[in-house]
Amino acid sequence: MPITIKEVREIAQLARIAIDDKDIPSYEDQLNKILTLVDEMKAAETEGIIPLAHPLEESQKLRDDQVSEKNQRESYQSIAPITESGLYLVPQVIE
Amino acid sequence: MMPWEVVIGLEVHAQLATSSKIFSGSSTAYGAKANTQASAVDLALPGVLPVLNKRVLDLAIMLGLAIDGEIASESIFSRKNYFYPDSPKGYQISQYDKPIISKGQLKFSNKGEGKVINITRAHLEEDAGKSLHEEFQNTTAIDLNRSGIPLLEIVSEPELRSAQDAVLYLKELHCLVRTLGICDGNMQEGSFRCDANVSVRNIEDPELGTRTEIKNLNSFRFVERAINYEAKRQIEVLEDGGVITQETRLYDPEKNETRTMRSKEDAHDYRYFPDPDLLPITITAAHIAQIAEELPETPWNKRRRYVKDYGVNSEDAAILANSPETSVYFEACMRNHAVSAKLVANWIIGELSALINKSSLTISNSPIVAERLVSVLERIEDQTISGKIAKQLLGLMWNTSDSADQIIAQERLGQVSDNALLEKIISQTLIDFPSQVQDYKAGKVKILGFLVGHVMSETKGKANPAMVKDLLEKSLTQGV
Amino acid sequence: MNLPNSVTEIIHGLENGTFSSRELTKAYLNRIDNLDPKINSFITVCHDQALQDAENADRRRATGTANKLTGVPYGNKDIFCTKGIRTTCGSKMLDTFISPYDATIVERLSSQGMVMLGKTNMDEFAMGSSNETSFYGRVNNPWNIDCVPGGSSGGSAAAVSAGFAPVATGSDTGGSIRQPAAFCGISGLKPTYGRVSRYGMIAFASSLDQAGPMGRSVEDLAHMLEPMAGYDPRDSTSSIVTTEDYSRDLEHTLEGKRIGLPKEYFATSLDYQIESVIEAAIKEFEQLGADVVEISIPTTPLSIPAYYVISSAECSSNLSRYDGVRYGHRCELPSNINDMYDRTRGEGFGEEVKRRLLTGTYVLSSGYYDAYYRKAQQIRRLIKNDFSKAFKHVDAVVSPTTPTTAFEAGKHLNSPVNMYLGDCFTVASNLAGLPALSIPVGFADGMPVGLQLVSSYFKESTLLTFGHMFQKATDWHLHFSQDNLKEAQ
Fold this sequence. Notes:
- The structure holds three protein chains of three kinds.
- By secondary structure, chain A is an alpha+beta fold.
- Chain A has helices at about 5-15, 25-40, 75; strands spanning about 60-65, 85, 85-90.
């Protein structure tokens, strides 16, 4: 199914990626080519096949309920763009 | 006027009582300074991975057993993708297909009428961090201490039909999670949060109306008021010929109204898919059996037992069983003691609670331990003191470690049961109040209360009131 | 000093005192400084730290507390987090990211006493097959600097090929170790999914990514695999299956071993030169005692579409954390939170990454999940089943690693789909989670040709034996591009 310009914009918004208007047609074109490739999957007969999410057939290993992390705020925030009083700052979000 | 019906479904996020977070080893302790309990995994640094905390499974299974739910033998985590600054990965690890618990039930009663609400599912997920919008100008400040706290989201079918029922359902669920020890239920600290899905319809309409979701309900009172407001609002819109928009709304307790949440205006496409960083959880019958063996008594079984084994009435049983600490205390009072359960119940619910509420302590750590309360009640039952004096005694015991008997002796609280003394006071009373005596003999038997009261105050409350009543009656009927 | 030709040689040299780790490290660093401007295989060279680590290694050796690998230098793909050292993943998004922690494999190699020379160049966020998408410029193939080295581990492959490091770490999601190994004439191993910890390896596609060694010989890969392999409690997807002493049991006859040739792979129109090189290599295996049988992997044409759906979907979610809030690039003067996200991500990511994020977001979006993602996961099971069937009859499935040799830089930049088709032999083993090895087996038009072997789960030792015995009998792996480089100076 071909993707439209409108859909490209919608997907870019969902993915929160800014794309210049002038670049949208090229993305539309590339995405359509990729989706054409992907559409080759349609030929496969997959009725009743259980999807494989993990190559390993193992179960989740569990961790004991213990506190094992110490406070490393200074180290972690030394690489942050903007912090103040130990908080990460972003433009105000209006609820 | 069309008869309207309100339809309510509730989603409760209960914080599971673990020491560390669901996918990382950070502490879950409340009140820490901002971002001091946010590890590399919680911060979603490049390259980090989640590892599941064993205890959250145990706690979820406990709930599943208590609500007779189906416990999945294989359960998976899925990613719920959305962008928000307090969601560091840009997705929340939650459950979509194959939640850990499905198809349970919660029963409660509304004024004696029993109700059964089906619980669609209960699933595990991680909490997001906190966004603070008021700290700085034009800025939102993010604290990720809460990011990764384990939550159990408990979803009910839309089977509730009144705000009152909704609150009763919530209270029972709240009692259950605390009694099982899976959640501390502290609503001020955000350990037990409720979202309400509300819609209205014509009472004869089989279809459900469009629903709105109300968030930010962190007290039972708010839940009730918000649902009532929203139902009314929706009815007004529909009666005016409008339509209800499916949306998320915030409850404003100060204005007692709900309003649209700006950030949730766009419909979210969460693009759920199984989280590839986590493998499917396998839950064996042996694991479930082990949890079942250690499962604490449910509140409803406890209430039933209190009525049946102790003869407590059902209202009192409900109060005693409402908190694990109170029920432990009550049972300690009853164990190895011969005091009447009714008396114990009355005093726990009445006087003791009053004393505790005035203080900053709890029933578990107040100076009136079970043994001490029992010692007071024993003195009531053996008529050493009256109930009124006992209240005084309890108050005194709060501030000293002396025993009941020691204080009774020191303060001379013992009841006056000396017939001669009493008869002297009674005689004087009859002389002092001739018109009341007249009224009594004329048939106004209620006036006896006044006379008993007077005798009691003459003995500074220390007379045995039953005895006083008896002697007065005798005097009045026999006397001149 | 003359740089040694293998890790094995280095191990002996250090043990015998022929040279010190410091001397060796200095020599590699000099070579990098002199010649890497031509190749651009390193993003960050850790001059001071490497010399410090080398000195520590020499001290350990002097006090008798050295391991086999103590003092051996290596290149580390810039996808692995290194504490206190910039970790960029080839992206502007992480240009300023100094990692506060070490990846598990980095911890393990460091505790062995290995010396990290620096962080090697790579396709941005590991998305690419040519190392042309790096924010730090493309990497050139040491065999022909107008050609690509392959990707995404192009920097590691080129560094080993050019003699800048004896061995290097790589990561492989759809062929990113094997394909550049093939293009650069070196050996590369993608272990079984779950064999090596992913903790600290910046995620591209979580159910496909695997870390692995790249080196001049299969023996070197075995040395490197030993400390890398093994269960890590910090990675829920790492396996508890026990590891082996991979370098100890490499010598085994291939008599009685069976090699499978998938008829679907050989039906494709391969370049005739490549075809003859591969045929010769297969004959060599026969001479070594292996039997060759034809097998069938009917799902072959489905692997690329399934791969692109699954890898795009997973990466679209894995890269959502790059939002400018807690680390990495943030755009200037955002007007509101959405503007901050949009421009941060628009500026921080290159085009190929953006294409894959959009594709991934699309295939997971409402209404498309079943047709794309679920379907791809079903095909994934079919692929796994095909290989399981094959492994009932053979010990290894063999094919060319790539359909072509290294192509000219810029050739596929405008046609991502053509670029993707080059992964046709490699992606299936990622989808199925199987271990796969690429070894150099000859040349076509002067450029290296790689042969791929795939074995069943946790049978790395089978692959390494096949590879080692082949390399004992041949010398393709001893053709060094550094001879070319010297001439190119």
